[in-house]
Amino acid sequence: MPRKTALHDIHAELGAKFTDFGGWDMPLRYASELDEHRAVRGAVGVFDLSHMGEIRVTGPEAAAFLDHALISRISAVKLGKAKYSMICREDGGIIDDLITYALGENEYLVVPNAGNARTVFEEFTERIGNFNVTVVDETEETSLIAVQGPKAAEVMLRITDSVTAAPAASGAAADGDSDPVEAAVEGLRYYAAFRGTVAGVPALIARTGYTGEDGFEIFVRDTDPDDTPGTGSGAGSGAATVWRAALAAGEPFGVLPCGLAARDTLRLEAGMPLYGHELSTAVTPVDAGLGVLAATGTKDAFVGRDAILAAKEKGPDQHLIGLVGEGRRAAREGYEIRDPEGNRLGEVTSGALSPTLGHPVAMGYVDATAAQDGGPAAVGSTVTVDIRGKSFPYTVVEPPFYNREK
Fold this sequence. Notes:
Blueprint: H1 8-13, E1 17-21, E2 24-29, H2 33-42, E3 45-48, E4 55-58, H3 62-69, E5 82-88, E6 94-104, E7 107-111, H4 117-127, E8 134-137, E9 142-148, H5 152-159, E10 160-165, H6 180-187, E11 193-198, E12 201-206, E13 215-221, H7 238-250, E14 256-258, H8 260-269, H9 305-314, E15 318-325, E16 336-338, E17 344-353, E18 360-367, E19 382-387, E20 390-397
Parallel strand pairs: 3-14
Antiparallel strand pairs: 1-2, 3-9, 4-7, 4-8, 5-6, 6-7, 9-13, 10-11, 11-12, 12-13, 15-18, 15-20, 16-17, 16-19, 17-18, 19-20
Helix pairs in contact: 2-8, 5-7
């Protein structure tokens, strides 16, 4: 049976339709995924992301350990900041993409994807070796609520009560004449975090997200004594308090609770990769166009370094492209990408009819040589996608398809 977040019973009361995702019973949608998508693009939406993993790494050599275990230079991340990175195999295959928060001099919070949380924890355990470090899986007792959209900061200003720790690197520090909450929320930089209280509940507040909009993610340790982790019975938990407060504060803006369906179309429009689709152990960071995350120039050793360095020097075997179509027929995962003569170039990894743009968008891998200038899958070229036996034209573009700054 899939596990349930502390908010599961609340989602059921709201009429959510559920789906098994990463071993968790998660809201797919509540009423209309299109309305939920548009709420985030136009105003604000609230997501339960408690299926995501939380792994706390502490100890005198925490930074050195993470430098070894992950491909990025985590020791360079300033207190209060966060870093998007990956954990890879020795052959360069991506085990997971994740975010690491620097919470203290010797304290880090690593957030892997739901389906990979246990795998990442086990990989960390195997990689500890002689490092003086402690690794604890806190996934079961941690809830994560995301407030995303152009009005997200206004919602956070209404529900954030206090700032208990705001490192200068987060951009959230206030001077003597400023309101500390206003300074913390409005001054918080992207990929930064501070500790505070939200609706009276102690929390870690981060300015991160997976929608292409401004947004915040709120980490809460469950406080309901009647809640058994993974059962969904935490209606009186701190997570439930924060969830209800966020929805109440967002009412003037037309807030909606949002499910995984809207989250997927939002991240696709923003050109953000999803593990199991654009990322997997069959793909290196170089293949995914994310080789810059691997600190091969500043770290002499980390798991997967030799393979990733070789991939950088040789060049990728495959290339991730963006595709824009016409009409209403969306390319889906696994559909074949072909040149105009019908020769196979690769296949789609994610695709949907974009609610914001009104036309189909997709991402997919093609042979790297095909994506080179002058190749059949170079930017600006027209390829076809086989959709249930019929060929539909798509234009090759560079993701993202949607950018809120434009």
